[in-house]
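Our consortium's second objective concerns turning raw sequence data into structural hypotheses that experimental partners can test. To show how far this objective has progressed, the report includes one record in full. It was chosen at random from the queue rather than selected for favorable results. The single chain below, 223 residues long, was entered without modification.
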Amino acid sequence: MKMKSLIVFGLLSLPLLSFFNSSKKNNDEGLGEFEKKNFDSALNYFNESLKSDKNNPKILYNIASTYLFKGDYQRAISYIEQVFKNLSVNDEEIKLNAYFTLGNSYFHQQQYLKAIESYKKGLNIERSNLDLKKNLEIAIKKLQSKESPNQQKENQRQQKQPQQVANQSSTPQKNDLAEKRENQRQLNSAKTILESFENRQQNSLTRKRYQEKRSKRKLEKNW
């Protein structure tokens, strides 16, 4: 079955500080170039914007997102890390978008566990975000399909080995086992979040139907 595409967030516009604010002007020019998919030109404007407004998390985010669209995922991650360093306590919107972009960057690097962790952190900010939920589901499916049938057979074979052979395992093998356990723990945690999301959606739908029925009964009684 064909895997659905990841959902990506757009860029962020700067607040209107003044009509002649050069940082905002360059950022807006960058947004226009980005919409035209002129990513190199967009980066030039964003970097100019950053010169007069250093460490602005919105500009840093826009640069990160542009690198994501260019396919330079490592640079995207690097700039997102700078975003987190310069966020204020109340920058929840930027933080949410940053986790989204960070997750997508890790996903394209096939670092599915890190992508899952990023999407989870985003959902902790906005539990009802359907786009984050979709990307989390895709990352989980990718991680689950990453292990080949041959690897699964090897795991089953190792489980059937005598105990004395298992005790002779080398340190690298023990590290592999610890890594697999951690991967499974992260996977289970992500599934729990998805289940919680689905339960909230169902409860919300149930409450809505109850309110509709209650309103209908009131109307019938008043009639």
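The partners drew two points from this record. The radius of gyration is 23 Å. Residues 15-20 have pLDDT under 50 and may be disordered. Both points have been shared with the crystallography group to help prioritize constructs.
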